[in-house]
Write a structure and sequence with these properties.
Layout: E1 10-16, E2 20-27, E3 35-43, H1 49-64, E4 71-78, H2 80-86, E5 93-98, H3 110-114, E6 119-122, H4 138-150, E7 153-158, H5 166-179, E8 183-185, H6 195-225, E9 232-235, E10 241-243, H7 244-249, H8 257-270, E11 275-280, E12 285-291, E13 294-295, E14 303-304, E15 307-308, E16 317-319, E17 325-329, E18 338-344, E19 346-347, H9 348-355, H10 357-368, E20 379-382, H11 395-403, E21 409-410, H12 411-414, H13 418-429, E22 433-437, H14 440-446, H15 455-466, H16 480-506, H17 512-525, E23 541-544, H18 548-551, H19 556-559, E24 563-564, H20 572-579, E25 582-594, E26 597-602, E27 605-609, H21 612-634, E28 640-652, E29 655-669
Parallel strand pairs: 1-4, 4-9, 5-6, 5-7, 7-8, 11-23, 19-22, 23-24
Antiparallel strand pairs: 1-2, 2-3, 9-10, 11-12, 12-13, 12-16, 14-15, 17-18, 20-21, 20-22, 25-26, 25-29, 26-27, 28-29
Helix pairs in contact: 1-6, 2-6, 4-5, 8-20, 9-10, 9-15, 10-15, 11-13, 14-15, 14-16, 15-16, 16-17
């Protein structure tokens, strides 16, 4: 009797984006790239992310009609950490600075990031060779009883801790023994020099621990309730996977997790190792570069919320350009151009779907007017956030907020002065009010290229916009279809500009935006002039996002290379989350404090050798062991380890003089799956 073939394990990928949570069920069977068995979206529920996750995951399980127990790995990318830093959220933490002076807070934005959180300065730290100054933790010890009551965790940074972490370890042990609260030490997150920026990174990490802990706990609870007994992985900002337990300790490394996952998904779906990846959403377009199968990383460290961290993450450029971008007209021009973004509006088609007659009746009223109005096609509606978030409004803002309700109201009836318009903009920036108006998504509905919302409301908005007048007093378009074509052409054109701008910036070209605009303008207008200009990318573009098939259809001729839009482009992040690899690294430094003495600083140990070769061998052995242990903690049992060494030497009177060596081990492998 022939045994039944063992079914292929199933993998579940989840991406919690700003608007939607995506889920995808994937199997390794079905060809070199595997097979997407089911995919689904649900609105992201910020008050409880598990609700949005369950909506998307339950939908894919139902579509695939599969037993949840067949899922052997779950992996997620998340914008939670990124959004928290951008919005200034996170727990209150105490920063412990060892060997630093108060003036160091002014460097690298550390004081701004600290805000009103407490800071404790202690004597101590080390020099560049790891030699210790006298450590005194009495001030910290005295402050702990009060701090324990008012903070959710601690961040510890010591002077030159990357060369000797002993003083950070002493402070960490003291805090844990006395308070039991989470402690992040800077040497655990980065081996780079630059104390204040390392302190900043450690501070932000400590703030995020409780938030990521809640997300992981909620997700694990949801999986257990569905009988999914599989390891849970999280995507880091460099595209690598780590275990949920690993991410709980180092949540700062999940910033830019979503964009990184999309790059991994793009490479997996297309098989392209070198490409420019452009991900268009409702609000923004994110552009990054794939080189030799890996995302290009930001060499200076990821910048999020205005803070430059020491976290390795994708070098991503974000532009305020998307399907829901505000459509406006260039001021004062005889032949005004269509302008898009950077502000997002609620598309009229979506507002019409949600509110019906309340929207279309106002648009029809404005169309019956003999002359176009400045505020035609614009409506305001409350976002529905809790009332407590409206605290601190000025009198004018509070009065206007009272007038705006849960049903959209036309701005030409709501606003009576420019001052009120400014108040409305502030309410929008606070997240209290949405403005609905004509967007590229509406243009797509008018032309029948999108059909998931209310096409009638979109058409009314297009008619109103087409009635606007140019510098000669003529209507800017003859029909709703004509203006809609112009809007979609403008979006493709601007997409080409941001892609070329990113390419020029990666090449180190000054004025990248200006050059990109000029080149695309010449290509679109078919007017080469005396100086003929043309441009071609050296690699294709991969278009991601649900609207990429529409907006990137005419992109190839503008960027001088092909544009590939994969079949499952709408769930690239979720797919990238599940097909990635675990990748961790460990570093060691070998210095020469005095002639003939070679000091190895690796992990949490510092050792001296009398021979350079012995010191290098010890450093390589150390980083291999540390990388292997980290890889296991990060979720893989099959790591391959590569070691690279970089030497700094000088030549004096023909003799080689050793200065320093940097030894790095990188461990990578597929995540372990449930048996």
């Amino acid at each position: 009797m022939t045994a039944k073939p063992k079914p292929s394990p199933l993998f579940l990928g989840i991406d919690t984006g700003g608007t939607y949570t995506d889920a995808v069920l994937w199997s390794e069977a079905g060809g070199p790239s595997g097979k997407v068995l089911a995919k689904a979206k649900a609105l992201t529920t910020r008050h409880d992310l598990a609700v949005g996750i369950s909506g998307a995951v339950d939908a894919v399980l139902e579509m695939a009609a599969t037993d949840p127990a067949a899922i052997k790995l779950v992996s997620m990318s998340t914008t939670l950490a990124t959004n928290a830093l951008v919005e200034g959220q996170g727990g209150r933490v105490a920063l412990v600075m060892i060997g630093f002076a108060e003036g160091d807070l002014a460097r690298d934005g550390l004081k701004a990031a600290l805000g009103t959180d407490p800071v404790v300065f202690c004597p101590g730290g080390h020099d560049v060779h790891g030699n210790a100054a006298k450590l005194d933790l009495s001030g910290l010890e005295a402050a702990l009883p009060e701090l324990e009551k008012s903070v959710s965790g601690f961040a510890v940074c010591a002077y030159f801790a990357t060369r000797n972490p002993a003083h950070e370890l002493s402070a960490r042990n003291l805090i844990r023994d006395r308070t039991g609260l989470p402690v992040t030490a800077s040497h655990e997150l980065s081996a780079k020099l630059g104390g204040p920026r390392r302190a900043l990174t450690t501070l932000l990490n400590a703030r995020l621990i409780s938030m990521i802990d809640r997300l992981v706990a909620a997700t694990e609870g949801f999986l257990a309730a569905r009988n999914i007994a599989a390891p849970l992985m999280v995507v880091r900002g460099d595209g690598a996977l780590v275990s949920a337990a690993f991410a709980r300790q180092r949540p700062i490394e999940t910033i830019l997790s979503g964009p990184a996952a999309s790059l991994v998904g793009a490479r997996h779906m297309t098989g392209l190792d070198d490409a420019v990846v452009s991900d268009i959403g409702g609000t923004t377009t994110d552009v990054a570069v794939l080189d030799k199968g890996r995302p290009r990383l930001d060499p200076e460290g990821a910048t999020v919320g205005g803070f430059r961290t020491m976290v390795e993450a994708v070098a991503m450029r974000t532009f305020g350009l998307g399907g829901d971008s505000e459509v406006a007209l260039e001021d004062g021009a005889l032949n005004p151009r269509i302008l898009l973004g950077p502000r997002r509006l609620v598309p009229l088609a979506l507002a019409g779907l949600m509110h019906g007659e309340a929207v279309t009746s106002e648009l029809e009223r404005q169309l019956r007017a003999p002359n176009p109005g400045r505020m035609d096609g614009r409506l305001a509606v409350r976002t529905g956030v809790p009332e407590r978030l409206a605290a601190g409004l000025t009198g004018a803002e509070a009065k206007l907020y009272e007038l705006i309700g849960a049903v959209p109201q036309a701005l030409d009836r709501l606003l009576t002065s420019n001052a009120q318009n400014a108040s409305l903009n502030r309410l929008v920036s606070r997240g209290l009010v949405h403005v609905a108006g004509f967007t590229p998504s509406d243009a797509a509905h008018v032309l029948g290229r999108q059909a998931n919302w209310d096409a009638a409301a979109a058409r009314l908005g297009a008619e109103l916009f087409a009635r606007r007048r140019d510098g000669r007093g003529q209507f800017i378009a003859a029909s709703p279809e004509a203006i809609s074509e112009r809007v979609l052409t403008a979006l493709t054109r601007l997409s080409a500009e941001v892609i070329l701008e990113t390419a020029f910036a990666e090449d180190g070209l000054d004025g990248a935006a200006t050059v990109a605009h000029a080149l695309v303008q010449r290509a679109v207008d078919a007017h080469p002039g005396i100086a003929r200009l043309s441009v071609a990318l050296d690699r294709p573009v991969i278009g991601l996002g649900a609207s990429a098939p529409l907006h990137y259809a005419g992109l190839a001729e503008l960027v001088g290379n092909r544009c590939v839009v994969p079949q499952d482009t709408d769930v690239a992040n979720a797919l990238g989350a599940v097909v990635g690899q675990v990748r961790v690294s460990a570093e060691a430094r070998v210095s020469q404090p005095k002639e003939g003495l070679f000091r190895v600083a690796s992990g949490e140990s510092v050792r001296d050798f009398n021979d350079e070769a012995a010191a290098i061998a010890a450093a390589e052995k150390d980083v291999r062991a540390i990388a292997a242990a980290r890889a296991k903690d990060a979720g893989t049992d099959s790591a391959e380890i590569e070691i690279a060494s970089e030497f700094r030497v000088s030549t004096v009177e023909g003799q080689r003089m050793f200065i320093e060596a940097h030894v790095v081990a990188v461990a990578s492998g597929r995540p372990r799956i449930a048996v």
